[in-house]
Amino acid sequence: MSDFPYSDRFTVNRVLPERGRPREEVLAELREMAQAEDPTWETGKVSGTMYCGDHEHYRFLDEAFGLFAHVNVLQRDICPSATKFEGEIIAMALDLMHADAVTDGQPVGMVTTGGTGSIIHALLAYREHAAKHRGITRGNFIKPETGHPAFDKGCHLFGIELRTAPIDPQTTQVDVDWVANNIDANTIAIMGSACNYGYGTVDPIPQLGELALSRGVGLHVDGCLGGFVLPFAQELGYDVPLFDFRVPGVTSISADNHKYGYALKGASTVLFRDKAYRNAQYFFLPEWSGGKYHSPGIEGSRSGGLIAAAWASMVQLGREGYRSYAKAIFETAFTMQDAVRSHPELTIMGSPTFCFAFRSDEFDIYHVADAMKPKGWRFNGQQYPNAIHMAVTRPQTQPGVAEAFAVDLAAAVEYAKKKNAAGEAPISAAVYGGVPGGMTEEAAQFIEGFMEQMLDTQQSLPPL
Ligand SMILES: Cc1ncc(COP(=O)(O)O)c(C=O)c1O
User: Fold this and answer.
1) pLDDT per residue over 281-328, tens digit each?
2) What is the rounded CA–CA span in Å between residue 346 and residue 409?
3) Where are the beta strands (DSSP E) in 8-153?
4) Could you tell me the pTM of the whole model?
5) Are residues 73 and 86 in contact, defined by beta-carbon separation less than 8 angstroms?
């Protein structure tokens, strides 16, 4: 699909139109775009992103959203429902993360707009908590290299020094000794993923917890991806290591409702072992001429619709619903991993579960991505080393998808071998593959252009 498939089909709005259009006409235009785009992932060949993929569930969430979409949850006096929804989302998520095991704090949480939102709120909480209780003015935070870029973004925004720990290339887990050697008097917190985005592997959280406790720093567990699926897999008896509040030393956890919580996009939960962390980042401006202002997080106005839909998803599915989806996802992921392992040219990285990455020592793995792309497969790409990953979601659990993966993968391996023998470079490596020597001026310009394309309507216009 081109980036601008609609520019010759619909009016390009470069200015606010003087006269509005009939609602039905606007809706027809929206429907046409949605109907053109949904089939790309409905096949089950797209990694991640459409975690639920069930239109019936989406219609249910849309109705829940529609009832409260226009409500600003900052004004609680006119929407006590938001207090019920937000409080219950937090309580249910705390329950899922075994906050009942906490004896050294008062567990609390907050609902944010996404994984990045949860992560940056946790970073702000650690910064403010460390300033208040330890007098730290320029703190540092340690993440494994595999930790999500949201941590880099948050540290950048809040003036926190980021220290990046290497990972063991075999297990893809963080080098705990490196973390231990790099904690100092200004370390506000460290983190581990459960699981990380790139390889789907879980860092050794109990070891990190011990370290955090012994050195008096916080430990954030990034469960944005795994937070709403790994606990159910644990309940089902799959081999998933401990990563939640049962681990001493874990002081905060992020878990995205809008991923495996099957909520609408724009909802995540961040949980704290003790309310002193969360409350440290509250914002008050009592002397403002516009009135006494306070907000529990970074956002100002927030839509009640997203909170209502996230709540609705949780209570409608219940543990039973989440468990049954987790089982189907895990079984599908293991079937797909078996297909990968059946090719000696391919290597699965670390010991992943529902999200797995694979690479090859015999050819550039992006040849495999190239061969599978025309068949509708869309993987996420890694670099250093080049690898591709599949985050298995509900669309992959449809009948026939794992089987199609095995067939198409076998053909792709043959294709890759031929291309490699011919000395040809893969096509998709230009976008996903490692840039030798790191970021070049050309690569920076390419990325800037890519973002401009997303934001600047002029790009889609024919020349004047
Ligand atoms: C492990 C992990 N953490 C954080 C994030 C960031 O989440 P979001 O894109 O919702 O901001 C992601 C996104 O895929 C993720 O996989």
Assistant:
1) 999 999 999 999 999 999 999 999 999 999 999 999 999 999 999 999
2) 10
3) 108-112, 140-144
4) 0.95
5) yes
| Residue 73 to residues 65, 89, 294, 306, Cα–Cα distance (Å) | 13, 14, 13, 10
Cβ–ligand 1 distance for 115 under 6 Å, the answer yes
To which H or E segment does residue 381 belong? strand 380-382
Q: Is 146 in the pocket of ligand 1 (CB under 6 A)?
A: no
Give dist(CA 19, CA 181) in Å, integer: 64
CA dist., res. 416 & res. 346, Å (int): 11
Query: How many CB atoms lie under 10 A from the CB of residue 438?
Result: 8
Q: Is the CB of 150 under 6 A from ligand 1?
A: yes
Contact by Cβ (8 Å): 129, 218:
yes
Q: Which atom of ligand 1 is found nearest the CA of 258?
A: 10
Amino acid at position 332, single letter: T
- Region 101-124 average pLDDT: 98
First to last CA, the chain: 25
380 lines ligand 1 (CB under 6 A): no
pLDDT tens for 153-162 read 999 999 999 9
Torsion of CA 80, 227, 206, 202, to 10 degrees: -160
Higher pLDDT, 7 or 137: 137
Q: How far is the CA of 20 from the centre of ligand 1 (A)?
A: 38
What is the structure's pLDDT at 430?
52
For the Cβ of 219 lying below 6 angstroms from any atom of ligand 1, the answer is: no
Burial grade of 338 (CB within 10 A; 0-12, 13-18, 19 or more): exposed
The candidate with the shortest Cα–Cα distance to 410, out of 338, 458, 355, 329, is 338
How many angstroms separate the alpha carbon of residue 259 from the centre of ligand 1? 9
Atom of ligand 1 at shortest range from CA of 48: 14
Distance 89 CA to ligand 1 centre (A): 19
For a ligand 1 pocket test, name from 51, 111, 116, 389 the mutation site with the most ligand atoms within 8 angstroms of its C-beta. Answer: 116
DSSP annotation of 391 reads E
CA 85 to ligand 1 center in whole angstroms: 23
Closest CA to 169 of 391, 367, 357: 357
Q: What is the spatial distance between Cα 364 and Cα 246, in angstroms, rounded to a whole number?
A: 41
Q: How far is the CA of 149 from the centre of ligand 1 (A)?
A: 8
